[in-house]
């Protein structure tokens, strides 16, 4: 596994999540319906749920799923996750609003850094077909659309009972 914490990607820096991040996480990301609409997690309804998420992301490193805070000029602006498997590294990004361009500005150097590691051949991610803004970000960053996976993921903020169709995107080592 490769630790994604304490790294610089352009103007962004990743670091381990700390308990006090839960306040920003809740108020700026997980409690915001605009940010959470297409996420695989329900909108947090309390600060305590955000505190629990911080603990779970920190414990996830034991299972090969890393979570890290993303900061810009020392300010908490988002969260990145990376799940390592034999299929490659699946990444997830959550940015506070407004974050115009932040996903691409962070995601491109982060993906390049992962692919520079000898043991990583593929970095991939998924997004809801309906999430046109994020799908455009993938297109602009020259990610390859692998295809549309039918009924791929439950997105509880859209429909908690019906899996949604999702685009699968990837970048591979040349």
Main features:
globular; 174 residues; alpha+beta; eight-stranded mixed beta sheet; Aminopeptidase; single chain; 8 strands
Q: Topology, please?
A:
Blueprint: E1 7-9, E2 12-15, H1 21-30, H2 33-36, H3 47-60, E3 65-72, E4 75-85, E5 88-95, H4 102-115, E6 122-128, H5 132-140, E7 144-155, E8 159-172
Helix pairs in contact: 1-3
Kindly summarize this structure in a few lines:
This protein is of the alpha+beta class. The protein contains 5 helices and 8 strands, in the order ββαααβββαβαββ.
How would you explain this protein's 3D organization?
- With 174 residues, this protein is of the alpha+beta class.
- It has five helices and eight strands, in the order E-E-H-H-H-E-E-E-H-E-H-E-E.
- It has a single domain, classed as Aminopeptidase (3-Layer(aba) Sandwich).
- An eight-stranded mixed sheet has the order 1-2-3-4-5-6-8-7, sandwiched between helices.
- Helix 1 crosses helix 3.
- The mean pLDDT is 92.
State the name of the first-level CATH class: Alpha Beta
| CATH fold descriptor | Aminopeptidase
Largest sheet: 8 strands, mixed
**How many runs of DSSP E, i.e. beta strands?**
8
Sheet/helix structural class? alpha+beta
Helix content: 25-40%
Distance N to C terminus: 21 Å
SSE pattern, N- to C-terminal: EEHHHEEEHEHEE
Strand content: 35-45%
Whole-number tally of structural domains: 1
Q: Output the strand order for the largest sheet.
A: 1-2-3-4-5-6-8-7
